[in-house]
């Protein structure tokens, strides 16, 4: 039913826009038309910003954050507490926690959670890197800031097991996080409270 | 509350994404992160597609459609009925009607509707261009395919008045269009039926 009604250049733009999360075919068409109408003020600048991001954004080999430097700005921030590492599933969770301003330390992005159903096993996540970082002298606490889902909590248990030989305090977020909820959708206040009230794991 | 948590290159990408219709700040962050993760398969190609669109898409000086040629592909399509012009508010409505496959003729995009409250007056719309095209020999019918809103119908009356000196049949879409609804949200079947059952204006 989706006849090609614009030229191939516009159709390609629409098709690529439709692959963005949150945009279906219809909203992709609206977004593409909006871009074409705002050629000078939005389409050109957005194309440039994407080009810059495509060329310059790298993944931090230490923590898994995305930034234009490796190690990233957070890893190289001397004002951060070197004894604290907050383990998250995804960069979006790192961003959400940073917005809360409640993390004095650094992060470690696992890149997912264990999921037997989806075939995600420990070797698919950046767990070796976490064990390595957690083994460094001066690290005293690991906060497991994983989603309050079954897979998230399974992953938390697995990570705890993998770190059990180290003299670390391992904590998790307080149950201010709604059961079944995802970090990235929570407001800053809830995330702050959950960090403050973290409990021994 | 929106602390800058990523580098300036990523923040700029997020801010520009947030200006797209249908994306708020949160979904813009998710979309930007999705793009960064799909650098090779989506971010690069989308940047290129936007660059191509920014450089090559033009507005057809005859009908107001957007395309990479002026006059546009529809205006230069020799298989189209030269006696019929379908007047629409926006290019999105042209696209919607083209998807229905029910228009054998060409289009004229007004670029909006008259709206005293929003200060949109006749000189802000491409009405002169329509009068000029409608005056050409061989044009026999003008279909007013405007939204079934108060402003859309006000505009239809105004356009009819401006064309009244010409020996034309002026029609409007049948009332298959829901009252108060907007063309771009209708399915192809409803639009086809509305074109087929068009009535004298
Ligand atoms: Zn880092
Ligand atoms: Zn045209």
From TrEMBL, chains A, B:
Entry's family note: Belongs to the RecR family.
One family name in Pfam for this protein: Toprim_4
UniProt domain Toprim: residue ranges: 83-178
Keywords, in A-Z order: DNA damage, DNA recombination, DNA repair, Metal-binding, Zinc, Zinc-finger
Function: May play a role in DNA repair. It seems to be involved in an RecBC-independent recombinational process of DNA repair. It may act with RecF and RecO.
Keyword Zinc-finger: yes
Chain intervals annotated as zinc finger (C4-type): 60-75
CDD domains associated with the record: TOPRIM_recR (cd01025)
Protein name: Recombination protein RecR
Gene Ontology BP terms: DNA recombination; DNA repair
GO molecular function, one term: DNA binding
Species for this entry: Salinarimonas soli
PANTHER family referenced in this protein's UniProt entry, alphabetically: RECOMBINATION PROTEIN RECR (PTHR30446:SF0)
Listed SUPFAM superfamilies: Recombination protein RecR (SSF111304)
């Amino acid at each position: 039913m989706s006849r090609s009604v614009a030229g191939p250049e516009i159709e390609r733009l629409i098709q690529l826009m439709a692959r963005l999360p949150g945009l279906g075919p219809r909203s992709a068409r609206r977004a593409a038309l909006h871009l074409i109408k705002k050629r000078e003020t939005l389409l050109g600048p957005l194309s440039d910003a994407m080009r810059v991001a495509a060329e310059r954004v790298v993944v931090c080999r230490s923590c898994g954050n995305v930034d234009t430097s490796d190690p990233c700005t957070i890893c190289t921030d001397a004002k951060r507490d070197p004894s604290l590492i907050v383990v998250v599933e995804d960069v979006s969770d790192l961003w959400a926690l940073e917005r809360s301003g409640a993390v004095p330390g650094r992060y470690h992005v696992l890149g997912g959670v264990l999921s037997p159903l989806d075939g995600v096993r420990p070797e698919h996540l950046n767990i070796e890197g976490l064990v390595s970082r957690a083994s460094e002298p001066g690290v005293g606490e690991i906060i497991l800031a994983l989603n309050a889902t079954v897979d998230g909590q399974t992953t938390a248990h697995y990570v705890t097991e993998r770190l059990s030989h180290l003299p670390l305090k391992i904590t998790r977020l307080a149950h201010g996080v709604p059961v079944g909820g995802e970090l990235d959708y929570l407001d800053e206040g809830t995330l702050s409270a959950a960090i403050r009230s973290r409990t021994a794991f």
